[in-house]
UniProtKB/TrEMBL annotation:
Coiled coil: none annotated. SUPFAM superfamilies: 2-methylcitrate dehydratase PrpD (SSF103378). Keywords: Lyase. This is 2-methylcitrate dehydratase. InterPro entries: MmgE/PrpD_sf, MmgE/PrpD_sf_1, MmgE/PrpD_sf_2, MmgE_PrpD, MmgE_PrpD_C, MmgE_PrpD_N. Residues 286-470 form the MmgE/PrpD C-terminal domain. One of its GO terms (molecular function) is lyase activity. It comes from Roseospirillum parvum.
Amino acid sequence: MKTHTVRTWKSAEHLPREEQLAWKISRVAVDPVAVEDEVAEMIINRIIDNAAVAAASLARRPVASARAQALCHPHGPGATVFGMGPETRISPEWAAWANGVAVRELDFHDTFLAADYSHPADNIPPLLAVAQHTGRSGAELIRGLATGYEIQVNLVRGICLHEHKIDHIAHLGPSAAAGIGTLLGLDTETVYQAVQQALHTTTTTRQSRKGEISSWKAYAPAFAGKMAIEAVDRAMRGEGAPSPAWEGEDGFIAYLLSGPGTTYQVPLPEPGEAKRAILDTYTKEHSAEYQSQALIDLARRMGPRIGDLAAVESIVIHTSHHTHYVIGTGAGDPQKLDPKASRETLDHSIMYIFAVALEDGGWHHVDSYTPERAGRPATVALWHKISTTEDPEWTRRYHARDPREKAFGGRVVVTLKDGRVIEDELALADAHPDGARPFRRENYRQKFLTLSDGILAAAEQQRFLAAAEGLAELKAGDLGALNIAVAPGKLGAARPTGIFDVTA
């Protein structure tokens, strides 16, 4: 890996395009280096993971709305839409939109945390849609996804967005554009322009994950994937982008990040170096914000030791800056303590999550979020006794580069009404690659079978798994097999219509 210094350049200065971050990203995208077997296997795992959480969300309103919008844009050859039969084909950018929302709705797929946040499997829906529409093979899709993961993970390593209240999809647009460039075998110039267009059109604020969090939290990554496809299409037609997008005098760093005079360090593979970043990412065992994963496991462990939860006086979670300020009391969001808050808000309240996990001894992607569950008086009482505080040591470990040091958990101090104190800590979720029970292929298979149970027919479950696990052998034009189809009754009730539904 080579670490590249990225900063603002004045217009009067000459920054050769070969020295611009977008050009360096495009060089990684066009590098024909082989994909290692271990990487290809993990890509298959994440395709299975995405389908699992998409299946579980098909009947939910935001997913149904996105699917309804997409179905108004039929196209051939086109791409498939989760839930619909293989004969239903729509324009690829709309397929990426619908499928991206389905994947993201439950906040239950993979994650990478470093200088910023990310869910790198958000690259899969746009790349799969383009691959289906353009008749690519499984091996070509694998190559494209290796690039998408590589670029997103390394942007997340080097550039912090959230401190400037920029949503993390600003790293996803460029990574998806680069991945599509690899998938289609595009030249450096085209990918360079597409990456910059994608950055320019997917820079949005973090209000989508603040205060009263709405369904846009699920829509935002799908929007980035849709924009990436459109950016590549324009670039293929010869249209350019605002350049240099990151380094320009009025560009991304100068006015949206830390400003002129600030430098960022972004690592990227050298020419001929394998793209292995996906191996540094991790999926979720529980349907909740990643920074709650280890704490759910810790609550499960601590519950029997505490015993009667009515005897609790207070619970303090000592954790990282990110956890305290994003999903903890450091956010200052009263909604995180509101029993009537949306599912999306509860998903970003570690106080709520820890309380329910203590009471139930685990977590469920539906039952743990119902209004009845959130409104239970004993739960509300316990929930409101929980607070978070930043611990510099947990913040240091959160950002540590040494995998033996890196941690996303915390230390929990429970004070009982009789004065006794019970403490415990957990650095990594059980399912993390370095955790107590790392996820393997069988775990991904089981997650898919569990979340799609009662939604997909058994034969469809097995058909999909066989197709996904045989991805490398799927021939050009066969990627429609990576769709999941359900009976119409599994897609939820009728929904309100919109502009696209209107016919002459």
